[in-house]
Amino acid sequence: MDPQEVDARIAAMLADGKARLDTMLRAGAAGPLWAPEPGNAPQIAAYNSPADILLYGGAAGGGKSDLLLGLAVTAHLRSVIFRRAYRDIKAMEDRLIAILGGRAGYHVNDMVLHHEGRMLEFGALDRPRSEYNWQGRPHDFIGFDEGAQLSEAKVRFTMGWLRTEDPGQRCRVVIASNPPMGPEGEWLPRWFAPWLDPSFPQPAAPGELRWHVLRADGSIAWVDGPGKHMFDGVALEAMSASFIPARLADNRYLRDSGYRARLMNMPEPLRSKLLHGDFSAGREDALNQAIPGDWIAKAQGRWTPDGGRGIRMTTLGVDVAQGGGDDTVLAALHGTWFAPPVRRRGIDTTNGPAVAAVVIEQIRDGALVVIDLTGGWGGSARDHLLALGMRVEPVVFSQASRERTRDGELTFLNRRAALWWKFREALDPVQGDAIALPPDRRLAAQLAGPTWRLKGNAIAIESKEEIRKRLGASTDDADAVILAWSQREDALRRQGKRRLQPGRHLGPYGWMGT
User: Fold this and answer.
1) In terms of domains, do 90 and 219 share one?
2) Rounded to whole angstroms, what are the CA distances from 469 to 219, 265, 450, 464?
3) Which of 287, 290, 295 is nearest to 412 (CA)?
4) Which domain holds residue 69?
5) Average model confidence (pLDDT) for the chain?
6) Mean pLDDT over residues 293-315, rounded?
């Protein structure tokens, strides 16, 4: 409808109709300066996220800068938005003026907006010690545009003045960013490891809240919930974090433009980083990673849902949590095919009978139960299973090992190192055993998590405690799988020797009478 037709229709309206239209227009004019783009679910979720620290974005064109400006002019009283250099702020200034509908209240020289009781500042962090210009200047909203271009130390320093004296005003940090293009942004996958680090043992879903604390040495420790947590003798208050990915396809204003074509013409891995928001594109395994990520991926690629059909259960690996934030995990092995891990919360398996009940529920074909007794957690469960007549093989990871690597050159610091390394050898695409692992992201992340080192002539694998300290989570799933594999050969020999005897049959977890 053209403007002249609109004018004609308004002129023909009755007086009460014009009054209602005036009321509607005034209500619309009194609405917010900015709102998330209708239909842009990630931007809407990011605007409403309760996270103290949020990473938003990933792909180019997802509406990242608009989110930062929108939060500043509608949801916060004192805001600052940082970019790497002042020359990079021009586009944000232009967009802010468009949102405001003019320059009223914006002081170009100082890059400060005062509007209806709200203040927004722009800042840059490219020069040495530039972060100190913001020392002691509190803000209830701190935004970082293209955070991967900024140094971790400067971001961390400026975040130190996130606070407000208004009890009704929430405080938050939003980092809007594409994946890192160079080493300066590699802190982002570490800060948001549950979403971005493929080696994180307990991956998080987009938008899910996780909690972490910053330890005295600068490392991040992921904890099981809000409140205070003791580290190094100090009670640290946990902050919530989340990651919400955004893609070009979410932005209706850009997705059908020529912008996508320009991104498609970029070389890899830059194309995947900008078009798909792939933080792992171009990334390599960690230095001295115990099990190569490519070997894990190949083993998961061999897996099919019916791969274990017709093959008796060989072993059942049991990693016992016995309370706490870890899980009790069971891994069933059928030949070389692993069933998906069975997980039970630690708080639900706080004693031997509870663990034994889960084993009874899962075991088949008289399989050998291989249970972790490191620290004594699985002792009660083992006793209950033995009393039921099951075959149980205990494993203590800290025990000494006499095994050697396949080439005979190296020994192992302990049994944990030997079992993890033997599983690595079994996953070798050339000399391995064609293991089929379920396509479970958490399992893959845990298997890729530990690193190894040499102590003299012995291989040492990171302990659970070391991994939990570094990544904030345990390797329950991976340990259950490795436990199951560790006794496979012995279990197969025993199964091969057994024959059904007259009047007896093979029950769900052992030999039983008719």
Assistant:
1) yes
2) 9, 42, 12, 9
3) 290
4) 41-276
5) 83
6) 94
